[in-house]
Each structure stands twice: as structure tokens, then as C-alpha cells.
Amino acid sequence: MARREETGITKFLLKEEIFIDCCNGTKTISDSKEIFDLCIDPHFNEEDMNQKSHSTRKTKINVSEVVKNATLIQIFGSIDKNQDIDKLCLTQHQISIFCRDHKDLLRGDTYGTLFLMKKDVNYFVVHVILLGGTLSVYRHHLGDSTINWKGACLHRVVTRCCK
After folding, report:
1. pLDDT tens figures, 63-113
2. Which helix (H) or strand (E) covers residue 77, if one does?
3. Is 128 exposed, middle or buried (0-12, 13-18, 19+ CB in 10 A)?
4. The domain containing residue 11 runs over which residues?
5. Rounded CA gap, 84 and 123, in Å?
6. Number of domains the chain is built from
7. Checking DSSP bridges between strand 5-6 and strand 112-119, what pairing results, if any?
8. Entry pTM
9. Kind plus residue range of the DSSP H or E element containing 162
């Protein structure tokens, strides 16, 4: 994968365009046991998280790697210089489709791939871990500053293309 652009905290990985197919929003992460076959964080089963979303069109995405130690807010804030992180968010259905169709783009070796989603007025980071061909998925609050994501781990970040 070729380097395209750096933001200081992340660097874009792909020259070719990657898309998530349109979806009707009916699938949630807790409904995706065939995709997240190792572990699904119980937070996805909570009533406020286990809700369908809106339908989406075919969506162009970016895949980046974290290259500098940063919090989640710093990571996602560095991707959109206009600081409109709503534009980066994906739905649970889109995240499930990406993990199913683009598993080869997920970061392996127990490191993670991060996705941003919004539920009502709250932002969450969906953290997917690929381990031995199986997937686990966890949820973090975007504002959780207790975790400093290490640049040396090259965590992947998947967002909607905001350009």
C-alpha cells in the first residue's frame, strides 16, 4: 500500500478508491455475529446502541494508519481539518459491511482498526481486532482520554471520505 498523504498523526494508505456498498441500515453490530465471530462487546447489546440506522448510499472511504501517539479525539480530528467529524462517521451497518468485504484492510496482529460512529449526540469509536482470521469488536467513547493510542502499533483508521 502506498503512502498518499500525512496529517501528522495519521497517514493515508491507499491510492486506489475503496467503497462500502449501499445498505439499508437494518444491521447492527450486535446482529453481526457471523462477521464479529470471536467477541462482540456487550455494550453493543444495550438498548440505546442496538438500534437500526438510516440507509446509506455507496460510500467512498479512507484507510489510514496512526503514526504518532494520540488520543481518539486527536486521531479523528487530524483527519478532517475542518473539524467536522460528523462527515467521518459510518453507521453500524456500514462498519459490518466493511469488515466483511474488506477484511484484508483491517490491521492484524492483535492491533486494531478504528471506526467513528455517532449515536444521537454521542460519538463512539468502534475498535475491531483481527486475531487468527476472527474478529472482535469493542466500543469506546470518543472523549475517552485515558487511552493513548501508540503510533508504533500502526492502528488503522477507517472513515468516510470527507473530500
Report:
1. 999 999 999 999 998 887 766 889 999 999 999 999 999 999 999 887 899
2. helix 72-79
3. buried
4. 5-160
5. 12
6. 1
7. unpaired
8. 0.91
9. none
